[in-house]
Amino acid sequence: MAENLSDETKQKLMHVSVATLATALYKRGLRNQVIQDVHPVARKGRNMVGPAFTLRYMPAREDRNTLAEFRNPMHMQRQAVEQCPPDSVLVMDCRKDARAASSGDILIKRLMVRGAAGVVTDGGFRDSMVVGELDIPAYHSRPSSPTNLTLHEAIEINGPIGCGDVAVFPGDTLVGDDDSIIVIPAHIVDEVADEAVEMTVYEDFVSEMVLEGATIIGLYPATQEKNLKLFAEWRAAKGR
Predict the structure, then answer these.
(1) Which of 74, 126, 184, 235 has the fewest Cβ atoms surrounding its Cβ within 10 A?
(2) Strand partners, 119
(3) Measuring CA to CA, which residue among 183, 180, 175 is closest to residue 141?
(4) CA-CA distance, 146 to 140, in Å (whole number)?
(5) pTM across the whole model
């Protein structure tokens, strides 16, 4: 696991939503951290958390991207799968182009067996029905059957990329839930995780209050002292 993502911080991020993290980052002036138009291949009911290990694709040129390229043991797509560290998330920049696949089920199975935390592309996956059944969290734009060589050339491993209009630097933390994925800059991941945990506790309190009939005015956000007192009592009773 990357040094910037401690086990303690990872566990905190496993239990907060992307929506809550987006608000925590917005408070810090970061408004464009949610990867756009990328969704879970299948919902897992748990978060994906891990540092980014990146692969960048560029437009394919026909004389460079024949099927013979897959015989090359140093092919960048294959090397990315073999080099992605355990507990990391392989993030692929496909220029938001899902007309050809970023990967298929066999390579994603290899990532899973090697212990990757997940796989993300702003393009599409082949064999997505199989990918969705795997234990590894996987996110893409839509299914895509043509091989990546049709339109994409894997050109660089572990450099800065754009994925779904978001800048991703190697080592940034990715958090995905059953809605979407967010990118947390590495240097603020601990403080963002701490704040998101606190936000989640208050949001759970608010949810209970609202379901019991409380108005959101003065409660969400907490602008009335009586609600802060009720929250303190609720928190003590819940042990949170």
Answers:
(1) 74
(2) 90, 138
(3) 180
(4) 15
(5) 0.94
Compute the distance between CA of residue 162 and CA of residue 194 in angstroms, rounded to an integer.
Answer: 27
Length of the chain measured in residues: 240
Percentages of the chain per state (helix, strand, coil), in multiples of 5: 35, 20, 40
Residues facing residue 173 across a β-bridge: 51, 184
Q: What is the pLDDT of residues 199-222, one digit of tens each?
A: 999 999 999 999 999 999 999 999
Q: Write the CB contacts of 82 (distance below 8 Å, at least 6 apart in sequence).
A: 110, 114
**What mean pLDDT do residues 14-41 have?**
98
Q: How confident is the model at residue 125 (pLDDT cuts 50, 70, 90)?
A: very high
> How buried is residue 117: exposed, middle or buried, by Cβ count under 10 Å (0-12/13-18/19+)?
buried
As a whole number of angstroms, the distance between CA 26 and CA 184 comes to 11
143's tokens: 């299914």
The 10 Å Cβ neighbour count of residue 69 is 17
| Long-range pairs of 216-219 with CB within 8 A, sequence gap ≥ 24 | none
Rounded CA separation 34/19 (Å): 9
143 membership: H or E segment, kind and range:
strand 142-143
Query: What is the spatial distance between Cα 199 and Cα 28, in angstroms, rounded to a whole number?
Result: 15
Residue 236, both tokens: 């003590």
